[in-house]
Amino acid sequence: QPYDQEWFHRANAQAGCKIEFLHISDRLDADTAVLAAGAFAVCIFVNDDCSTAVVETLHSLGVKMIALRCAGFNNVDLKRAQELGITVARVPAYSPDAVAEHAVSLLLTCVRHIPQTWLRCRAGDFSLEGKLSFELQGKRVGVVGTGLIGSIAARILRLGFQCEVVAYDIRENPAVAAPPPEGLGVKYVSLDEIWSTCDAISLHSPLLPTTHHMLNQAAIDKMKRGVVIVNTARGGLIDSKALLNGLKLGIVGSAGLDVYEDESTSFFADLSYEVNDDDVMSRLISFPNVIFSPHQAFFTN
Q1: How far is CA 178 from CA 158, 181, 183, 188, 206, in A?
Q2: Residue range 26-74, pLDDT digits in tens
Q3: Which helix (H) or strand (E) holds 114?
Q4: Is 295 a catalytic residue?
Q5: Is residue 234 among the annotated active site residues?
Q6: 3-state percent breakdown (helix, strand, coil) of the chain, nearest 5
Q7: Please, what's the b/e burial string for 202-214 (b: 16 or more CB within 10 A of its CB; e: otherwise)?
Q8: In the prediction, which pLDDT does 94 show?
Q9: Does the pTM exceed 0.85?
Q10: DSSP label at 92?
C-alpha cells in the first residue's frame, strides 16, 4: 500500500541502508509466491498466506528470510521454515497503546450508540428514542489476554473508567495482577467466569490452535444478556456464526470488531462497488449494534 511504501523508504533512508524494495500489491499466497524470485527476503502482513506450500516455494526461489510487519505469526508455517533454514522475524510489540485505545474506543462506540446517533442526527432525527446506554464506571469488564496490549487496555479501563476489571491469561502479568502502585490490582479469574459474569469482554489473545474459536456458542450461552464483545486481536478467536446467533438471540448486546476470521479476502481493499459474498460478514455488518473497522487499530503515525 502507498502508506507502507512511504514508511519503508523513510526508515531505509534514516538508517542509511541501501535496501532495494519491490512493492507488490497482491497478497502473498501459493499463486503469487513466484513474484519473490530473486529476493533475499519477503515482508508480509497479517492476511498474507505463508503456509507450507508457500514457504517451500519461497525456499526454492532462494528467499532466506520472512519478515512480518506485525506481531502475529499464525499465518506462517514456522516448523517448515525452520527445516528449510529460512529465518522468520516479527515485530513483537508495535502500536500497543494504539490498539488498546482502539479497543476502548470500540467499546464506547458500542455502548453509547455513536454510529446510529450520528446517522440519525444527519437525517434530522434528534430524538433520544433507542439511544439509552449505560456507564462504564463500575461495570465488570473482562480482558482476555494480558500481554502488552491487553495490560494497557486493562489500565485504561481500570484507572480511566473505574471499571471492575478481571483478566484471564495462561500466564499472569505482574504489571496487571500486582497491587498498586506496582500493578493494577486486577484479579485473574477462569475463562468461564469471564464469560458468565462480565458486562463487556475485550479480546487480546494471540491466535493459536488452543485459542481458535475460544469465543464460541458454548461461551456465548454462558454470557450475561446484553454483553458487549470487542475484538482487536485476531478474527479467528471468535466463531463468527456463533456471534451472529448470539446477536440474533439478544445475548450479545453489541460487538465492536476490528478483525474478522475471514478478513483476508476483504480487509485492506476498497470493495464498495462489489458484492460481498461472505454471508456471515454481510449479516454482521447489517446489524445496527455491530461496529466494524478494517483491522486499523494499529494504524497511527
Answers
A1: 13, 8, 4, 11, 23
A2: 999 999 999 999 999 999 998 899 999 999 999 999 999 999 998 888 8
A3: helix 114-122
A4: yes
A5: yes
A6: 35, 15, 50
A7: bbbbebeeebebb
A8: 77
A9: yes
A10: S
User: For residues 152 and 206, what is the distance between their CA atoms, to the nearest angstrom?
Assistant: 16
Take residue 25 and report the three cell numbers written for it: 500489491
Sorted by sequence, the CB contacts under 8 Å of residue 203 that are 6+ apart come out as 144, 145, 215, 229, 230, 231, 232, 233, 237, 238
The answer to whether residue 208 scores a pLDDT higher than 80 is: yes
Strand, helix or coil for residue 51: coil
**166/109 Cα distance (integer angstroms):** 21
Q: What is d(CA 234, CA 238) in angstroms, rounded to the nearest whole number? A: 8
Helix/strand/coil for 53? helix
Tens of pLDDT, residues 164-199: 999 999 999 999 999 999 999 999 999 999 999 999
Question: Catalytic: 182?
Answer: no
Interatomic CA distance for residues 28 and 39, integer angstroms: 14
